[in-house]
Amino acid sequence: VAAFRRYSGTVVQPPQPPEIAAAALRLSPAQLAFELARPWLFFGAFVVASWAEIWWLALPLALATFLAGFVQLHDAMHNALGLSKSANERVLVLAGILILKSGHGLRVTHLRHHGRCLDADDPEGGVVHWPLWRVMIAGPFHVLGNRGLAMRLAPRTARDQIGETVVN
Q1: What are the counts of helices (DSSP H) followed by strands (DSSP E) for the chain?
Q2: At what angle do helices 85-98 and 29-51 cross, to 10 degrees?
Q3: CA 136 to CA 98: how far, in whole Å?
Q4: By C-alpha distance, which of 82, 78, 50, 46 is closest to 64?
Q5: Rounded to whole angstroms, how far apart are CA atoms 141 and 110?
Q6: Residues 168/101, Cβ–Cβ less than 8 Å
Q7: 9 φ, ψ to 5°?
Q8: 151 Cα distance to chain centroid
């Protein structure tokens, strides 16, 4: 009881040694299997609903597919799934392709985003300084421009990025 403090009605744990914290954040094999399968299960359900022309169901399944694919891609960008490097690279590529992105390209711009969060040169968050009309008009071109930026920032992965773009 003494190890916990109450603040604003929530329980806050004191800092823990990194080994304990890392073990607490590690996914169990069942959790990992679920995290890896979830976007593809939603995608399969979307394909079935679309094929059956159940559009009222296909639309939310498309959204769920995108969101689950983005979460998986984000976790792979941060190497947070606990996979080997080669398995993580495969997840990065497949999750990116599922949501029509380059996983390698997004990793480059996303890590740059963390380094320059919400600055004017933040490739992801810099647009918060734009007026709404510019976001509406230039937003899609900005997203495409980030693909070129990622290739300039990480020419070592440009071949992977080009391949993923072609598949998209």
Answers
A1: 7, 2
A2: 20
A3: 24
A4: 46
A5: 17
A6: yes
A7: 80, 0
A8: 18
φ, ψ dihedrals at 11, nearest 5°: -90, 125
CA distance 59 to 99: 15
**Residue 11, SS3?**
strand
* Residue at token pair 């983005």: 70
Copy the structure tokens of residue 129: 């300084």
- Rounded to the nearest 10 degrees, what angle do helices 132-153 and 158-167 cross at? 130
Note the pLDDT tens digit of each residue in 76-124.
Answer: 999 999 999 999 999 999 999 999 988 888 898 888 888 888 888 888 8
Whole-angstrom distance, CA of residue 142 vs CA of residue 146: 6
pTM score = 0.76
